[in-house]
Amino acid sequence: MKRLLSLLLVVLLIMGALAGCGQTNQQASENSNQQSKNTQQVAQETTYPRNETVYFGGGLWSPPSNWNPLTPWNAVTGTVGLIYETLFNYDPIKNEFIPWLAEKGEWTSDNTYQIILRDGLTWQDGQALTSDDVKFTFELAKQNPEIYYSPMWQWLQSIDTPDNKTIIFKFSTPNYHEWTYNLYQIPIIPKHIWANKSKDDLLNGANDKAIGSGPYLFDTYSNDRMVYKRNDNWWGIKALNMTPAPKRIVYLMVPSNNVALGMLMKGELDLSNFFLPGIPTLKANYGITTFYDNPPYMIPDNTVFMFINTTKTPLNNVELRRAMAYAINPKVIAEKVYENQVEPANPLGFVPAKSWQEYYDQNVVDKYGYTYNPEKAKSILDAAGFKLGSDGVRTTPDGKKFKLEISVPYGWTDWMEAAKIVADQLKAVGIDAEAKFPDYSKYYEDLTKGTFDLSFNNFGSQVTSTPWTLYNWLFNKVQENGPQNNGNFGRFDVPGLQDLIAKFNQTKLGSPEAKQAAAQLEEIFLKNMPAIPLWYNGLWMQASNAAWENWPTEHDPYAYPVTWGGRWQTGGTMMLTKIKPKASQ
């Protein structure tokens, strides 16, 4: 990549693969295009013992071609989490940081963070993993600003390693929220392998036969699957007292939700991270496990927003935006499109996770929020001068007709149906609207260039350790001369907004100062409605008990059951240490 990428943009690119029925565009390097036909044959033809192998689907959308942890938006799912590891893991259910490569980490002063590594850390080639590897990983981005986490060096001052286990980070401006998020997002890489790579290989190399520190080894792959083999010399077996149960993980490129459904019913897929219909039938007739016993069945994981282009007339009129919020009833979407596998979002779009809810200011929501009320929407429009014509369609305050297009990618069938429902609900209050379904590339181009009216998106709204990620996505700085890649697709801005986001970032997590800054940001959002929260997309999880059992559920929520790219360190790896092969096999 020749342009600067932020850590948030990485998340957006990964999330593009998880929303609706979208697919990623994993780019094969020159080396990976020359992959051996024999290797592919082995992966396709080998039959592994069923009680030693788990089959996953829902996070591989194109043939495996990249295992580079420095380009995680292109990397095969599992590259980070299974092969490469982070200093901490994070449990969204309990809102707990789990020491991983790090034995502990703490702020020793307002601008100094110290990490102590565990004893006995090793790379998969047997060499020791030390503080020098951690320092190298972070400083590599300082030397190569194209690396996605390089913006951290705008506020990270220096890194010292007084011994093989200790790393001391000193900050010019401590961004507490962003830093704690980075602790479980940035994979540590081996200096002895990566220090001699060319710049082109760092940024564009496929990293075939990747060597990390994780519980699984790069084994083999083909056009429709990635195979990982358990690392029986993994440092975590002793240090964490954890041993992954499956000897192999086969991650399948399942071409559609319907195919995934059939495979799950036949026990050919152990865990599906797809949206699948008919959950009650699957549970009753096929013994499928979901996280919750009853609707919504799935953990709310991210929020689908309808972004509003605030630079376009009449959408630059805040009263029109407020009226639309009152006019839309996401409950209809939850029932008709998702069979109640999702829930309507709250007015702020906060997923109901512990890490975010402590910043949810109910007083602000009570004062400035909204609920579905089409009569209220009509009265707001009337008062703002959007007159209703004899044809049932409103005009702008200066008497001009207008029609709004709601854009979602073609093929994302659930979003397409939801967009039709929203269009009908807007029409019911006199706003002429129509759902449009461009192909994904056109959708994304319009979204980032600001050439849309209304557009669904959820790429930066997934649950994290801090709502800073949501604020930074919703209110990302408007780019004067370029695409709006990092969020805030409607290009909303008010004086002091960026300073307020920075202020929140620089407050300590859970502090009164953090909650006060959060309340101010939430007030700005609700007063201006630059986007409308619609529903919580679920962490789609349907698990077969035909070959493996003891999947995480609400009754035993030992892990967040996610296998999507970039998310293994938030529960997927932990899940592998707890599932068990079915005794009857």
Could you list some keywords that capture this structure?
585 residues, alpha+beta, Dipeptide-binding Protein, domain 1, 2 domains, six-stranded mixed beta sheet, 29% helix, disordered N terminus
Describe this structure in words.
There is one protein chain. The protein is an alpha+beta fold. The protein has two domains: 7-38 and 58-204, Dipeptide-binding Protein, domain 1 (Alpha-Beta Complex); 299-538, Dipeptide-binding Protein, Domain 3 (Dipeptide-binding Protein, domain 3, Roll). It has 20 helices and 20 strands. It has a six-stranded mixed β-sheet, covered by helices on one side. Strand 8 (216-222) and strand 9 form a beta hairpin. The chain is globular. The model is unreliable at 1-5, 9-15 and 21-43 (pLDDT under 50).
Tell me the number of helical segments per DSSP (H or I, 4 or more residues long). Answer: 20
Radius of gyration: 24 Å
Which outline best applies?
Answer: globular
CATH class of the largest domain: Alpha Beta
Q: How many individual β-strands?
A: 20
The largest sheet, given as strand count, sense and whether it forms a barrel, is:
6 strands, mixed
Strand numbers in spatial order across the main sheet: 8-9-10-1-11-18
Question: What's the pLDDT, averaged over the residues?
Answer: 92
> Uncertain spans, ≥5 residues at pLDDT below 50?
1-5, 9-15, 21-43
Structure class: alpha+beta
Instruction: State the end-to-end CA separation.
Output: 48 Å
Q: What is the domain tally?
A: 2
Share of helix, binned: 25-40%
Strand composition percent: 15-25%
CATH topology of the largest domain: Dipeptide-binding Protein, domain 3
CATH superfamily of the largest domain: Dipeptide-binding Protein, Domain 3
